[in-house]
Amino acid sequence: MAIADKSATTDGKTPGPGLRPDFPILERRINDRRLVYLDNAASSQKPESVLQALDGFYRHHNANVHRGIHTLSQEATDLYEGARAKVAAFVGARQASQIIWTRGTTESINLVAHSWGRKFLQPGDEILTTELEHHSNIVPWQFLAKATGSVLKYVPVPEHDTLLGADDFARMFTPRTRLVALTQMSNVVGTVLPVKEIAEIAHQHGAVVLVDGAQSVPHMPVDVVDLDVDFMAFSAHKMLGPTGVGALYGRMELLRTMDPYQGGGDMIATVSMEKSTWNAVPHKFEAGTPYISGPIGLGSAVDYLAALGMENVQAHEREITEYALESLGKIPRLTLYGPRDPLSRGAVIAFNVEDVHPHDIGQVLDSQGVAVRAGHHCAQPLMRVLGVGSTVRASFYVYNSRDDVDALVDAIATAKGYFSD
Amino acid sequence: MLDDLYKEIILDHYKSPRNRGEAPGYDIKARGLNPLCGDDIELTLTVEDGIIKEARFAGHGCSISQASASMLTEELEGRSVADAVGLADRVREMLKGGDEADADDLGDIEALRGVQKFPVRIKCATLAWNALKLGIQEHENGSAGSMDRTESGAAIFTDE
To answer: Is A32 marked active-site?
Structure first.
């Protein structure tokens, strides 16, 4: 049987409500309303093609990878490694082996902290990050600083627009700066950072650059070679793929010198009772039987996105962002956070309504079929900068439309109705 | 259905909280935090001869957590400490959906019954009552219980 390569079904399609039929879950009704799914920064929905790739693997090709002589094992390996090549191409990596499968962005960052950081950082070395970061790009560095005696520093974020330029980073470098760990797009306020310029400055100072691409890779064209970054971490489930899988892109010279991450099968070259030697990159970092269908699902997801074209995805989201900022900006007693210029941000919009707690807004919105996130969004340092404990967050993706923004605005009016005097 | 959650009396307690602040010279203090949603409530109680003389609350969170704490402080004044524990148990039972829970004499608190239909909000309503029980237990045993805590001493309650 031929290996099913579920190619994307998006030929000729463009981002927008026309994609809704591709996403079975969007047919659901929530509290007797059309589902308006605006929690994409937390997790995206999955198209039929991805669901079929996941199901099809178990139905037709399931076996362990990198081991068997038999047909199924070979098919499973081809699909699994084929997905690595697709994902590498999607982010512009030169070689498929520069993509390491992980459980997601969080594990990708922890892998670098463990396998690069613990090996190469010395007491007094400095790690530079920002106040915009998700906890997953803060806490692993706190662990690393404690373990190695290195120092964690934060680029301060201005409260009024949350924008950071290359200059804001430039003034933070010292001769001890060894690593810059930054997000490409804030998961709370959508701020997009000039990663290419920052990476250039970092490299002039001899520092390694790790980018949290959890929000950027799903929503804009990302080319790791053009950006010239050393590591890029991202998650499948925020880009139409399954949960539980993500990737770490790494510069090959660094990946070769790094220590393994976990010990076990598949990551070794030889094992004697005294010692072991390591398999080649990327397998050195992938101990044990992996989540085989996960990367295959992600491969299908990048097929879908690549067929849409990431420039088109970004243009679509900019248009929605502009419309949403304009619509939300007209609501009295509503505060918007983050950049006001749609060109310097992604389609992640944080806001609060005066005297109404974000969870109460979220509850009323749910009653209207509108799904948003409310809380601190795993970014408590940023909440402190903004002077709030939590916010409501609406985040958009390829299947959202202006109608969804209108539904959000109407639902906010309903929420205000409950809480106004 | 939303009206079952956001009853007038709850919104009134949220907008005009009773007994906000810290009870001067308090004998019992307890802080409960839900790190998942950020609801944070600190209760302070003064006790004389086993009777609660004053109860106040501080902190922040959603309307349900704050209204529940406000109602709690109103309901506690004049009750014995033992009675307060019994009340906390009954309220928690009611919020978690116990049909037999005797809620007839719970006053305003009965309005919180609507959270039963919104399972994720039950923990908002129980937070103050969980903190109350913990504070009284610690006061009586003279030691901190075995709860997970933040560095500032808030007990962590992630579910109801």
So the answer is: no
